[in-house]
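User: I'm writing a short report section on ligand binding and want a predicted complex to refer to. Could you take this sequence and NDP and write out the structure as tokens? A short remark afterwards would be nice.
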Amino acid sequence: MAKVMIIGAGGVGNVVAHKVAQLSSVFTEIVLASRTLAKCDAIAASIDHPIRTVAVDADNVEELTALLKQEQPELVINVALPYQDLSIMDACLAAGVHYMDTANYEPPETAKFEYSWQWAYQERFEKAGLTALLGSGFDPGATNMFTAYLAKHYFDEIHELDIIDVNGGDHGYPFATNFNPEINIREVTAECRHWEGGQFVTTDAMSEKAEFTCPDEVGTYNIYRMYHEELESLTKHFPSLKRAQFWMSFGDSYLKHLEVLQNVGMTGIEPVNFNGTEIIPIQFLRQLLPEPATLGPRTHGKTCIGCVVTGVKDGEQKTMYLYQVKDHQDCYKEVQSQAISYTTGVPAMIGAKMIVEGHWKKPGVWNMEQMDPDLFMEDMNKYGLPWNVIELKDFKLN
Ligand code: NDP
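Assistant: Sure. The structure tokens for the complex follow:
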């Protein structure tokens, strides 16, 4: 049905390649492109289905445009880093190819986590008759769909949203990040913003803590409020929301290391001159930390990510929780990856499927919740991320 090009051969790229290859009736031809060809080749060799590999620097719009014109895929699945989003969107426009990603564009020099740069492409994609789907991972991605699904099927109006991301997995290292370390650390050290009474309110990073007991015996975890990009699009597209917060679980060892690294300046994104060489501390730190892609075999335990929505149905207030639980080792058995990459890669594959099958093909730049969630949610159940929805009584985090 469609030829796709995956850009990025890291932890998430590996999962997307596996899942896309499992669906050869939809994705008839697969090209895996990334900066380091050897990483593409290693992924292709681990999959029992033909995948062509090619080296490309996605920061170089001309080089990427030429590759896209030569290959003519219908869609690019961008799972490189957020820094490449705009150059890949530019190349897609120049070559007439649909676009999707799993993370908002980030300028390398400032940590922003906002959609403004990509939303600015709306008119260009619309005029070109091309679809750009933003943030089709788990959070953002599945969490946007969960919110849209609850709003559509369980409420007349939604008022409060708590997105709760628990990773109960243990990889045995004192400190490692389970997706790209640079992006992960930038995210968790950023000031917290949450939506309250029609505006974003800023508080210190990690200053709000709560305890959350996950369903299905996943356990009880400390969760910390932080900013996450889907809050920006969800509060825009669901203006009835009075409050929206994002929470993530962190273990004590992770927090202890992060505090020290921050205090000594190792998480900085400003260049530092070291013996005549400019280095960016967080990029150097990245070199020292384990590659997220190597955590798969060592990670045990489960993730539990979901959305708690409070709103009104037929005049009555209620609270619903839609969540997904995934076992790290089950992911490793299927695609040789831990659950963080898996839970990102599967929604990326499903988003791609929604576009190439035509359900979500509409010119312009879209966040997930602007699309109808039903087919996506059906596919989550089919392709490895079954979910559940329950009513919560007396839910209160803060
Ligand atoms: P990794 O660091 O493991 O992989 C990134 C890949 O992108 C590497 O193969 C890297 O190549 C490649 N790359 C980097 N720069 C370029 C470039 N200029 N041109 C071509 N390729 C390049 O990251 P992850 O797989 O963990 O994450 C991938 C994306 O998924 C990120 O944007 C991340 O933010 C997002 N993500 C989204 C989540 C969600 O739920 N929405 C959750 C987790 C991640 P090289 O090997 O040469 O460095």
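A remark for your report: The mean pLDDT is 96. The chain has two domains: 2-134, 142-336+386-392.
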